[in-house]
Amino acid sequence: MVREAAATHSTAASAPRRLRVLGTSGAGKSRLAARVSEVLGVPRLELDAVFWDADWTYRDLDEARSLVRDFTADHPSGWVIDGNWTSRLDGLLDPGTPGGADAVVWLDHSRPVVMGRVIRRTLRRGLLREELWHGNRESPLSWVKRNPQDNIILWAWTQHAVTRQRMAVRVASGWPVIRLAGQREVDAWLRSLGGGHLDA
């Protein structure tokens, strides 16, 4: 079931309380989740910080899943979790599972919008040497790598269509999805929660 932004009239009181935010890299998942956390007054978990460890290695899978389980168990009245990592979660946060999401917010921006954002973000992180999770930083050397798994810009490009295909499957399976197609719909949904707008 897809709820388009125009048909979604939530308020902070009536909105789903356990939200998972999905979308292509660069779609704005983390920024939206942080704002929703403030508006709804629920804690936020960033999955990148859970599944990545130091030196761009993966955290032990059992440990990572345990951290997610503990977070949802500690906050049964509501939370917002951003990030994809679906294969490593193994259904842990899927709607309909015990402790899973009430609804999924899908940031479905166009490819040009996503690419513009991810390029600007990648340049900023690389040039300013911004620290991300556990001391990790994006290296400018990654910009010339040809493997999308080592180059976030190529990854965003190749995964845009893949993400839409995967979300279509999830919608068909009955997931409660709030699809936000473009910044205007993101802002309209936030306003319906009483949260104003999110700068692009």
The CATH architecture name reads 3-Layer(aba) Sandwich
Number of folding domains? 1
Q: State the distance separating the first and last CA atoms.
A: 27 Å
Mean pLDDT: 88
DSSP, total strands: 6
Helical content band: 40-55%
Low-confidence stretches: 5-9
What class do helices, strands and sheet pairing give?
alpha/beta
Name of the CATH first level: Alpha Beta
CATH superfamily descriptor: P-loop containing nucleotide triphosphate hydrolases
Task: Give the SSE string.
Answer: EEHEHHEHEHHEH
Give the overall silhouette: globular
Rg of Cα set: 16 Å
Give the amount of beta strand, in percent: 5-15%
Query: Which strand order do you get reading across the main beta sheet?
Result: 1-6-5-2-4-3
SS summary, helix count: 7
Q: How many strands, which pairing sense, and closed or not: the largest β-sheet?
A: 6 strands, parallel
Enter the CATH topology name.
Rossmann fold
